[in-house]
Structures are given as structure tokens and as C-alpha cells.
Amino acid sequence: MNRSASPSGATRAMTSPFDRAGQSDLAPLPAAALSLALSLAPSPATQRAKLMTALRPFTCQELESFLEAALADAAVLQALSGERNVRYIHPREGRRRLTVTAMETSVRAAEVAQRYRALLPHERPVAGVAAFFYGLGAYHLYRTYKGGLNLPPLASALALAREERLQLLADPLRALRSSAPGLGSLMTEVLGQRIQEQTDRQQVSRVFTAVRLANLRTEQAWLGPALIF
Question: For the chain, first and last CA: distance in Å?
Fold first, then answer.
């Protein structure tokens, strides 16, 4: 941890658990390989076990119970199993089609969010886990609208996706706020729900910015029209 930093409020309460940035020495499983491994998993329990192993490099001990609770929900696993065909422009080959999966999208978002330079070391696990789950509402909404047909305009779709995300994660977030108030409040705010407890607004802004930037393509790919990116 950077000893020159002087965390305050919720940050100070979280400093000790996050001294090593919550990251293991394991390299993250490539997103495409993880998606394939999950598609071959024989049961939801096996899928959850593979996910927990794959996400360990992004998280920390204090967030493992949150991960376990979220992944225990069949609706969360179902949302993460979605896929969509999109169009994009290849720099040499022109227009191409690509099938993207929710799992690959979420893992890549976690990877990108953790690399955001403004984050303090102990904030990187929060950004990684939040970025992984940030797209849940979009995936669920895409399924609800039968493969993206007749999705509402993007601004309305984003608001609906936020509501769906918070609903899917309501119980795990509540449990996290109970067991680790500072960490739980930060995670809740970053995922889109303003709470009454006092929080470090600069910290929330840093982590939210990392998560939001990492998920810009998530929103485009799952809430836009078979888009080109």
C-alpha cells in the first residue's frame, strides 16, 4: 500500500484488509477461455466454482463472501451466460461480425477497471469486482427483450439496467454493508445506489470512474442496436 496516502472515512476502515491490493499471484484466466470452460461446466455449482477461481486475481478476502452470495443466485448466472452478435470495423478487413458473451465482457471490464491509474492500491479489488458485475443489468435486460428486440432508447435502457443490476445484487450488497460497512457502502454507491451513510466522495468518484469507463463498450454492445465498435 502507498504509505504516503492518508485515507479517511470509509477508506481508513478498509486500508488494513487491502494492504496487498487484494490480488493473488495467479494470472487471470483469459476471458474467452473462461467463457468456454463455463459452457462445458455440468452444473451451476461447477460454474460457480470455476468463476470463483477465475475471479480470485481481481478480488480480496473481504469481497469473497460478496462474490459467493452473488454467484449463488441463479438469475445472476443466467445473465452472465448470455451472448450477442455485434458488428464492428476491423482496421484491415472492414466490417466483421463477432459473437460476444456476457462472461467475456465482464471479465475484460474487470481487467480494464483495475488498471485505472487514479485508483489507490486498496481500491483496485473493489473496482475489479464492481466492474465485473456492472453489466448484469444490461445482460438481463437484453434477455428480457428477447435478444435486444425493441429495446428502449439508450438513456431509458441505462436507467432500467441500473435498476435490474441493483435488484439482482440487493441481498449480497446488504450483507456486505452489514459485515464491512465501509467497503459495502463504497461498493453499493459504485454500482448505482446512493446511500445515507457518510462516504468518501472522492473515493467513490475514483472507483466509479474506473468502473464506468471499463463498461462503456458493455453498454454499447448490449443495449445499443447490434452495434459497430
Answer: 37
